């Protein structure tokens, strides 16, 4: 497994400090435990001295000569007196470890190590835990004139001493753990700061090898790594800018080529249809002559109609080209938008009556814009014409004009078949029609809306279309007011 420099530094620091803190905790624990044992040992020695003094005083005051029989006969009074004086339980055994007398209510364990050692003539004490209590038992033989009279066992509780010691040890462990964590965090921060520029350079290099030059690299250090990072950053920026320039030019050329191909494909297709119709009828008329007068009139009607449509299409193509390329000379002036829309609605209402369609207008007075009046009228005529052509018979077209945030908003809403949502994004493409058959029947060639959009944008405005199938369409235009 490969370890980074950061983690090598972190592990090294952590390992050293962990060993140091562990040694410190262990040494402290050993010192405290040794100190506890030292205290217990001294108190046990002092306890034996006190018991010996009490025994001598007892024998002197009672004018009794120490003997084994006295321990058996008067042992009860002896241990009760000793227990009273030392304040702890005292047990009296024979030389063979037989229990003679005791002041303890607890069960006596005859297999205690200290008792076994006392039976061998030694002084011994043991430390044991009984129900979360630390009990120290001292056992030693009692001699009189080198004659062993019996064994005295003395018990003392040291629970508080060990609790305090354990508390101190636990505090030291917590402090040690906190220090270790603090050192771990500091080591991590230091190692991260040291290795950060190197890691960033490595990651950036990997991204660049993948072809991704859009990498961010910041390093504020003024040392050697900072200088390296700055040089690397400048190199990447220079390469990135060159590649972006190349890609931008490539995409622009690609989009232009696609747009040109699509446009010419559409133009070819749209021009081919009326020319095919004209050519077909012309060839039949040439072949048959004037023998079939009815067919002759019908054919000539188609030829004239398709010729007019062809002429109209060519004119609109030229107009679209001028509007989109900027070749068209706009005559901008102060235009009374309110009056222009009122007049346009009145004029288009005459055509709408043929289909029993009513145009209702709510137009705010006194709205002025800077624009070309003829071109603006062309927008409104085109949109109202679409609403009439594709709206339901016996329906209403609502035209609303109002001012908001220093902009004129023109809304035209009709009731008709509507436009599918998936078609809305393509509606402004030249020659794009949702229903080509219906559009040709109604005289549409897919150039009206692209021309409208180009004119609106030349006036610094925006146009959007919302539509719902079987409900209708809403066209909204916004143009800056003056």
TrEMBL record:
The Histidine kinase domain, residue ranges: 266-482
TM ranges: 7-27, 171-190
Keyword presence, Iron-sulfur: no
Any Gene Ontology CC annotation: plasma membrane
GO MF assignments: ATP binding; phosphorelay sensor kinase activity
Keywords linked to the UniProt accession: ATP-binding, Cell membrane, Kinase, Membrane, Nucleotide-binding, Phosphoprotein, Transferase, Transmembrane, Transmembrane helix, Two-component regulatory system
Enzyme class at the top of the EC tree: transferase
EC number in record: 2.7.13.3
Protein name: histidine kinase
UniProt organism field: Clostridium liquoris
Organism lineage string: Bacteria, Bacillati, Bacillota, Clostridia, Eubacteriales
Gene: phoR_4
